[in-house]
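TASK: fixed-backbone design
INPUT:
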C-alpha cells in the first residue's frame, strides 16, 4: 500500500492515550489510515517540520494539511467522513464540552494515579522531557502524595459514567458510539496499560466495565504503517485543500493574511507562527513554509488555544 495526498496519516505512538481517542474514532467510522510512528520524547525533527513547532501527539496529516490536537482532528474527520457521525445521539455541541472534562480533569487524575503509583514507569529522559513540556517539575513525590486522592476523584467520575449507562444504553449518549465514548474511554485504556490499580478502580463498575469492552471491540479501523520520511515527502508534493476565508464574528477582528502565533493554553505551549488562511469559532488554519516540507497549512482548535498577532 502506498499512501497518497488524500490519505489519513496519524503521527502517533502506541501507548499515547490521546492517540487512542482518535484511533477509536477511526474505528467508529471504519476508516483506513496510515500510522506514522513518532518518538515519545523530543527531539521529533520530522514532526516539527510539519507542525512548525507543535510537539504533542497525535497530529493528523492529510497531504499538506496538518491537524494539531485531537479536537481539530476529530472535527476534520467528521467533516470529511460524516457517516457514521461521531454525534449519533450525542448533543453535537455539548459532546465537545464533555471532551474538555475528559481531556483535562479526568486525564490529570489518571496521570497522577499512574505516575504516583508503585510502578516506576518514568525514566530520567522521560522526566526531563515532560518537565520541559509542562514547564513544571515532574514531582514524583507530589504525585505519590496526590495519587490516593486522585483515585477517589477518578472513582467519582467513573460513577458518573456508570450512572449514565445505568438505563441500559450501550454507549454514553445512546445506542451508537461517538465522541463522548472515544473521549472517556481512552482514559480507562491508559490506566489499563500503565497501572496495576486499573482493574481495582474500573472493575467495580458493572455498566462501565461492559461499556469499556464494547468500545474496545469497535477497534481502530484498518491501519497501515508509513515511514516519517515518506509522510514528509507526501506533504512536500501536496497542496493544501483548505478553502480560505474568515467567518464573521472574530472577537478581535482577525483577518485572512494576518501573521499570528498560535499556542496551546495548557502545556506544550510551543508557539507556532504563520499567516491566517481560514478561521471560525472552532478552528484556525495558518500557512507556513518549511525547507523540508514546503508550504503547509496547520490547523488548530480555538477552544484550548491562544491566537496572538505576531
Ligand atoms: N490537547 C491535546 C493533548 C495531547 C497530549 O497531551 N498528548 C500527549 C501524548 S498522549 C503528549 O503529547 N505528550 C508529550 C509527547 O508525547 O511528546 C490533544 O487533545 O491532542
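OUTPUT:
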Amino acid at each position: 500500500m502506498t499512501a497518497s495526498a488524500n490519505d489519513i496519516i496519524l503521527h502517533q505512538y502506541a501507548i499515547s492515550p490521546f492517540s487512542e481517542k482518535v484511533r477509536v474514532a477511526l474505528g467508529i467510522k471504519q476508516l483506513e489510515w496510515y500510522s506514522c510512528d513518532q518518538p515519545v520524547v523530543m527531539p521529533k525533527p520530522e514532526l516539527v517540520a510539519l507542525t512548525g513547532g507543535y510537539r504533542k501527539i497525535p497530529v493528523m496529516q492529510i497531504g499538506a494539511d496538518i491537524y494539531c490536537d485531537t479536537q481539530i482532528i476529530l472535527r476534520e474527520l467528521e467533516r470529511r467522513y460524516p457517516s457514521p457521525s461521531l454525534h449519533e445521539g450525542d448533543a453535537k455541541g455539548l459532546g465537545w464540552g464533555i471532551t474538555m472534562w475528559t481531556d483535562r480533569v479526568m486525564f490529570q487524575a489518571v496521570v497522577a494515579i499512574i505516575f504516583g503509583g508503585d510502578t516506576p514507569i518514568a525514566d530520567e529522559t522521560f522526566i526531563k522531557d515532560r518537565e520541559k513540556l509542562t514547564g513544571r517539575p515532574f514531582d514524583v513525590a507530589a504525585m505519590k502524595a496526590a495519587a490516593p486522592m486522585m483515585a477517589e476523584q477518578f472513582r467519582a467520575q467513573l460513577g458518573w459514567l456508570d450512572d449514565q449507562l445505568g438505563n441500559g444504553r450501550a454507549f454514553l449518549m445512546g445506542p451508537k458510539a461517538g465522541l463522548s465514548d472515544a473521549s472517556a474511554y481512552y482514559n480507562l485504556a491508559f490506566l489499563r496499560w500503565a497501572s496495576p490499580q486499573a482493574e481495582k478502580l474500573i472493575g467495580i463498575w458493572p455498566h462501565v466495565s461492559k461499556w469499556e469492552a464494547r468500545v474496545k471491540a469497535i477497534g481502530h479501523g484498518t491501519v497501515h504503517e508509513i515511514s516519517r520520511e515518506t509522510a514528509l515527502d507526501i506533504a512536500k508534493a501536496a497542496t493544501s485543500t483548505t478553502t480560505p476565508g474568515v467567518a464573521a464574528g472574530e472577537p478581535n477582528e482577525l483577518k485572512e493574511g494576518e501573521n499570528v502565533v498560535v499556542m496551546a493554553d495548557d502545556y506544550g505551549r510551543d508557539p507556532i507562527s504563520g499567516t491566517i488562511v481560514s478561521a471560525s469559532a472552532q478552528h484556525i488554519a495558518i500557512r507556513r513554509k518549511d525547507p523540508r516540507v514546503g508550504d503547509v497549512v496547520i490547523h488548530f482548535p480555538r477552544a484550548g488555544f491562544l491566537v496572538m498577532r505576531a
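COMMENT: The CA atoms of residues 26 and 89 lie 18 Å apart.
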